[in-house]
Amino acid sequence: MRRFQLFIDGEFSDGEDWFEDVNPATGEVIAQVAEAGVGDVDRSVAAARRALDGPWGKMDVQQRGNLLSQVADRILQRFDEFLEAEILDTGKPRAWAEAVDIPRGAANFRIFADQAKSFGSDAYLQSTADGRGAVNYVQRVPLGVVGVICPWNLPLLLMTWKVAPALAAGNTLVVKPSEETPATATLLAEVMSEVGLPPGVFNLVHGFGPGSAGEAITSHPDVAAVTFTGESTTGAAIMKTTADSIKKLSFELGGKNPAIVFDDANFDNAVQGTLRSVFANCGQVCLCSERVYVQRSIYDRFVDALAAGARALRHGDPFAPDTQIGPLISEEHRQKVLAYYALAREEGAEVVCGGAVPELGRTWDGGSWIEPTIWTGLPESARCVKEEVFGPVCHVAPFDDEDQVIAMANDTDYGLAAAVWTSEVSRAHRVAQRIEAGIVWVNCWFLRDLRTPFGGVKLSGIGREGGVHSLNFYSELKNICIKL
Length: 484
Fold this sequence. Notes:
Layout: E1 2-4, E2 6-8, E3 11-13, E4 17-22, E5 29-35, H1 38-53, H2 55-58, H3 61-77, H4 79-90, H5 94-117, E6 123-126, E7 134-142, E8 145-149, H6 155-168, E9 172-176, H7 183-194, E10 202-204, H8 213-218, E11 225-229, H9 232-242, E12 248-252, E13 257-261, H10 267-279, E14 289-295, H11 299-312, H12 331-346, E15 350-353, E16 373-376, H13 383-386, E17 393-399, H14 402-410, E18 417-421, H15 425-434, E19 439-442, E20 461-462, H16 467-473, E21 475-483
Parallel strand pairs: 1-5, 8-9, 8-11, 9-10, 11-12, 13-14, 13-18, 14-17, 16-17, 18-19
Antiparallel strand pairs: 2-3, 4-5, 6-7, 7-21, 12-20, 15-16
Helix pairs in contact: 3-5, 4-5, 5-6, 10-11
């Protein structure tokens, strides 16, 4: 059985205790994971501080960028190892992991390395009373030691989405992956060592949240900033913990995302796109559509087609190339989702399809499998329409006109993403501009240009990530004024 250790100051080491890493497809324990204590986090922060004051802090942006490009190369050279680790930890289908998680994880390093190398700054010539003038220019400096707390749904992708720009901007890191998905983070630590990243630049501590490594990072006085992706309630707790030290924060939190289908949309494209936006990664993507609004004239036909597509999704061996839907991340999470399935029935939902646990045979009996599910008939005030489930489920409701559906879509405490399906260009622009969300896809979903800002409004987050927006967060701006 594998043992995933901590990575501190360039060396792997044990922690204060061990916990189990479970394969959610089978329920089997596949590794033992070292749990960091407060002392381990202290060592990590101290190592990161030394690296910042030492070799890493003395490197210029070209040198840092070259090392990050080597990280990208090495991930691709070890592609099969990263792929196996990601599938075993998450249970997600091979087709998704090899097309999205691993290539995007590598691409993040290359993209942000290139972005940092070409990142400019402002300069101004200022007039003065003596006629000689002054020059003001802006220097970008690292924040310092950054705490990176990562989710379990897209472990490598979302970790590198933070790690790459933070390193490109010159910071040093203490990274805590989810306790559910420690494997690819540990492989990434190996890669950092292999390419020659100076000790202390990238530190990895495994553990949990309150009373464990997560809380130790967020409360540490020498951590200058915290970046977190996860549940909104956890984000609120981190804000409270960091309030006294006024740390810089970047949060990408939950969503209860709407998909809006107008009757002039390409019907087949809208069905297939909505199937993907509801059930991708077993619904465990913060961007998934849990609320689907369909114009009344095509409502019944659309529900039938969506349900037929959901029933046809293939469960099975996550390593098989034709598997389309994997398990939930854990038995604990499955019980949460099943509780929402039961609540929906109590609230009066019609279960169009799904709503239970599939029978897949003895091999998978111990896994956290669940059926893709579609509800109809709930009022907009129902808890199952208001609260994020984070599973393979959506509620489909009819609407009559544009104003009505925009009001329905915006009637949420969240504001992360939305999808709009229409063939009318003017309507696409009108609706997208009125939707209260950080990103609106029109006639597509999960199509990302990594240079664009990504993040949410309301309970869905604080700040933006992507391109210069990430580099801006991970930098402090210093104004230097030179009197001529």
